[in-house]
Known about the structure:
This protein has 3 helices and 5 strands. It is an alpha+beta fold. The longest helix is centred in the middle third of the chain and has 11 residues, at 26-36. It is globular and about 30 Å long.
Amino acid sequence: MPRIVFTPQLRRFVDAPDFETGALQLRAALEECFAAHPRLRGYVLDDQSHLRANVVIFIDGRRQRDPVGLSDILQAGSQVHVLQALSGG
């Protein structure tokens, strides 16, 4: 089963446990995760349900390709890492 892993920085603000899903498309996998953990949605997606500009997703070590439709395909053993960009000054 694909596993979604959230960055520790995100966990400072909201409960973001690792999540296993049977979905084999990124959008469907995220929707399953958000159904179980609704507060995560606003940290990952914007109000048009697109990936937020400060969030990056890697699937099996490769950056996902479709930040709008989130149509990337997952494999049964995929690792999906959701990261927030860090900024500083």
